[in-house]
Amino acid sequence: MPSYQAPVRDMKFVIHDVIGAARYADLPGLDQATPDIVDAVLEAGATMCEEVLQPLNVVGDREGCHYANGTVTTPKGFRQAYNLFTEAGWTALAADPEYGGQGMPAYLALAFNEMVSSSNMAIGMYPGLTHGAYRAIHAHANDELKRTYLPNMVSGKWSGTMNLTEPHCGTDLGLMRTKAEPQSDGSYRISGTKIFISAGEHDLVENIIHLVLAKIVGGPEGIKGVSLFIVPKFLVNADGSFGARNGVRCGSIEHKMGIHGNATCVMNYDGAVGYLVGEEHKGMRAMFTMMNEARLGVGLQGYSQSEVAYQNALIYAKDRVQGRSLSGTKAPEKAADPIIVHPDIRRILMNLKAFNEGARALCLEAGLKADLANHHPNDADRQAADDWMALMTPIIKGFLTDQGFAHAVNAQQVFGGHGYIQEWGMEQFVRDARIAMIYEGANGIQALDLVGRKLGMKGGQVLMAFMADVDQAIADAPSEFAPLAAKLAEAKDHLTQGTMWLMQNGMSNPDNAGAASSDYMHMFGLVALGYMWLRMMAAAKSKIDAGSTDPFYATKLVTGRYFLERMLPDTTSLLAKVKVGAEPLMALAADAF
Amino acid sequence: MPSYQAPVRDMKFVIHDVIGAARYADLPGLDQATPDIVDAVLEAGATMCEEVLQPLNVVGDREGCHYANGTVTTPKGFRQAYNLFTEAGWTALAADPEYGGQGMPAYLALAFNEMVSSSNMAIGMYPGLTHGAYRAIHAHANDELKRTYLPNMVSGKWSGTMNLTEPHCGTDLGLMRTKAEPQSDGSYRISGTKIFISAGEHDLVENIIHLVLAKIVGGPEGIKGVSLFIVPKFLVNADGSFGARNGVRCGSIEHKMGIHGNATCVMNYDGAVGYLVGEEHKGMRAMFTMMNEARLGVGLQGYSQSEVAYQNALIYAKDRVQGRSLSGTKAPEKAADPIIVHPDIRRILMNLKAFNEGARALCLEAGLKADLANHHPNDADRQAADDWMALMTPIIKGFLTDQGFAHAVNAQQVFGGHGYIQEWGMEQFVRDARIAMIYEGANGIQALDLVGRKLGMKGGQVLMAFMADVDQAIADAPSEFAPLAAKLAEAKDHLTQGTMWLMQNGMSNPDNAGAASSDYMHMFGLVALGYMWLRMMAAAKSKIDAGSTDPFYATKLVTGRYFLERMLPDTTSLLAKVKVGAEPLMALAADAF
Fold first, then answer.
1. Is the ipTM of this complex over 0.90?
2. Assigned CATH topology for domain B144-281
3. Which listed residue, of A363, A426, A588, B433, carries a Cα 20 to 30 Å from A378's Cα?
4. Chain B residues in contact with A574 (beta carbon < 8 A)
């Protein structure tokens, strides 16, 4: 059976010493998160995840969810675990105190969510989706709706969902058919079918608050006529008691490759009562609040599976003896050496370690940027943080999930044949990780978002600000890191060349941008991780310079060097592919395939 | 439900026009395979695979094998399908006529096996393993054993297995504990436990012929004391009738990530009667006959899953409408354009197509080399073909399965959310493809075999011969392909640089060879596919020059160009990684991870 130990030590390092969250401890909304509180939350979170959620991960996968007559039963133990989770207040962690939340920063919630996802991704999705729905309602709904729905969503008594996809419409939401008919009391009646609705129906909570995209009858065509509605499973009376069962029913659940413990539902809306969130026909804006948060969460899922897969591969690599080291016997007392002595096993483990730690640092930086975007008193700082988030969201989602999956596959490889057997649990990490590349906008869509929308934001200034940050990190690097900083400078130069190529060729032929997009996104992701690594190395070095002998810091230096020397060079080939352009991709007529 | 259409047209092209099998039609053993016969076999094979095996692929995955009290029941329909398969003579295709085989060439059997594997990998493993066991017995056993076992294995009445792995010993077979005690009648008694035995027990045949590695009591320590034995499930009397049930029993079957239709067994040998194959303590040599054949077959499994995944992704990409082309609406009559218009979808499809066709050409070339190694009357030619096979086997196994899996994952991505749902069948291709990276020597072992054994064979002459072939293809390329031939020359130069680096650094520190091995193997695989592509393009061009207007040839040129321009440049980054050396990988103490 696989195990999991939350990387609390590394999270503390990143929060305290790399992103330097304490610098902002005087800002409203961040002022409660003193270093002591942060540490205490991380430690308590680790206990919850390791002791309550993780033991149910295999159980959830084996048993899956059960559907019968519109109801969904979660796997054995999920309900008790969920209750412990909510009773301990974890659903309220980063929510608004006005609605019962603890008002903790986003970066801390992200750190906790990594643990949740590593320990049990399927169960973590129930509160995860609730928080996304909470965010959209909090940002866009009127006060009455907020008062009615948010407190119970914050406490976890109710859960939330997001309903976008229909059978014929996924990426292209303009094709949507679900309709909303205005009623005389100001509410709407929602009718249509939504598919792939995670946590659409289940037995963990008393009420489920669906956020549903639909078109108001008579409104504009296409995406411009889409509005967002709250559709509760049970109507809620003015006094907070339950009214009638609403006209929304789960028609079936999907049989999926992974995340078996989470119910993926077909939801049928049949004249269900819905309440408009925000303005008419502005549903996409409201939904993007939710989706951007969800995309960060999904990026985190990508590396969270790689992290837990790494931990188990490492244990196996130290335990399993097979063959002798190429450079001479290392464990003469054993029949063979532990396989961690073999360079190709090392390569896999170092790739995993360097990726996971870099990804974590990038996500926690994103969390801090989210906090600054929400709370910084200075307009310009708030806007800069928001811009950074906009730029980095598709990279975090697309790059970290592509790579997280690939690394989970490599971790499975360390186990040889045992990696393919369910009993060892490694193949579950791979199956679970796979969905993160798909949902919340398939990674191809993330890449298009990056090259099509984000690069050109504000005339390229957002991109330039990131590039300047990278230059600063290179300039700030201690002199002994100069050869490694030069590696980052080289990779950044590749990214700049790729960007220039896109500017010169993507306007004249948009297919050039599309053809380059995925490889460009990966190049960007590598540079972003290289940037975080250089910062981590600088932080570790200042601890060592200050006299620390904790091997944690020396290990950081070795791992960072590995990333910069041996993983970052992938930008070379990626740039070559970016520059090939669309023509060789588009040359065949569709019939010629 | 997924579909499959055997790529008969492409196979004919490769066999007749690229590898030019007919050039050898006068050699004994190849003389029956006239072009007409080859075409007829491919067409009949396609019918068998499309109509009998493929419809059971999903069934086999859903139902899996059942274990009860030592017996294994295969999924519903497998037995009837297997009977149709054997009755039509497919198990005899490439077997020796002396034992009832049809004596067809290995390249033709490989083409057929690709179809089998694409249509139903799990069922294909039963006859696949039988053929491997047949080969080892045919090459190493005495005449009496051959007469006793081969005819029924060739007809498919009996099946075969290979038993290497034990719970504590996979790669490192020197740790083996299964023992063989010599008996006065010349037989042995075999005792021990073997795991991961594919097709170890099942209900498709009357008898199962296990090939078992074991150590003769009192023999040399480690790998030098390993011998190979035939251990039949039922003993066979001199008259061919069944004797006693032998002391070998299936203890359980594994629950695996994929290939659910194939029984992966724990086999318990308890004083089972065994017969020595070949010489005492020379079991590894005999086993390698089987393993090299099996490794080719596994390489083929890798791209066969990518092939069937491609076919289904292509159908979906033409059918699914979503969004509009970046370069202007392509299907104004529809609500949206088919997603094949989007460059990022094209990128995935072209990657799949270019990889699959290149991989097929390489495997069929390998098949022809196997035929030449067996049948060429000239010693030097036979040896050269055998050397080529030795060099290319780890590349075909390691590179084609790593890439085949990655491409199957990308094909799944084309489906968006539907790719994650079992119903669509794409996730099964991914799960099934995953095992090919692991069994018959995990891919890390293939990479070590390549850099540790194969590169240095005959003082590097085997490698040089391949390099000379690549140079020849570049020199022979029509002048209009010069810019593309230059791409191959550049990639070959990277491979040469990598090889030089290994020569200079791998001897002094073997860890350098290990650290570089996987990336070097991938670089080699890319060059090998580039080489096949240049040959395919030349063959297609001569058809066009001869007046053919079949769009098949024009498509080959476009696809080949895509491979050379957009996939081959990965050698750049791979070379950079090769040259990094072992130090950054090995710098951390095991405890510091």
1. yes
2. Butyryl-CoA Dehydrogenase, subunit A; domain 2 (2.40.110)
3. A363
4. 573
